[in-house]
Request: fold
Amino acid sequence: MNLKVQYKHLYCLLRHLIGAVVCTRKHLIIMKLTFVITFLCSISAFAKGYGQRINLDLKNTAIESVLKEIKKQSGYDMFYNVDLISPLRKRSFRLKNATLDEALKEVTDNLGLEYAIEERMIIISKKREYRTNQNLIKGVVSGEGGKKLQGVSVVEKGTSNGTTTDIEGNYSIKVSNPKGTLVFSIVGYGKKEVLIEGLQSIDIQLVEDKSELDEVVVVAYGQQKKESLVSSITTINPKELKGP
Reply:
């Protein structure tokens, strides 16, 4: 009799455990399905909003009204400064089946505006100005008395980046380091180094170096310094150059 009771208790216990396991699995399945459905609904809502096509047929309409229409059709929130938008002149827009990006680009172009989309928020702001030539340096090189010097070598120190001045002494060079140094040099004048220090215009004056001029020898194929010559040198007296 006791054995029968024990078997009965064991049977009930096993049945209870199996039921609990089945119930737990059901709960887990329900939780997973709930998560998947929620995730798919979120993706669907996002795709519906972002993929919403914009249609505009507006004539001589205030920009603020145009933005409100885009907001209405897209379902996105929109943030902008009224004082920035209100003074803008009225314009006409005609768009058919355009994407949100296309519509915003069409509206903001040529108005000094730019836009950004963050999650479900459209932010309209004043277009930022980018200085594309911030490392471009221009200037004029002259000698004593204000004479413009042609052929002056202008080099960014420590690099092979360089240029030369034109007939009016003008030069233009784009440097890699806005805090670097420019080196100016030409035969007959003392070399000069100038710190850039973020400047975009550097005019300098070179001082004549007579000692260097005395050491320069003109040869048939250019001019060189005496110490760099290995061929024989003949000195000609100016009187010898005179005709009979």
Summary: The chain is about 30% helix and 30% strand. The two ends are 156 Å apart (CA to CA). The mean pLDDT is 78.
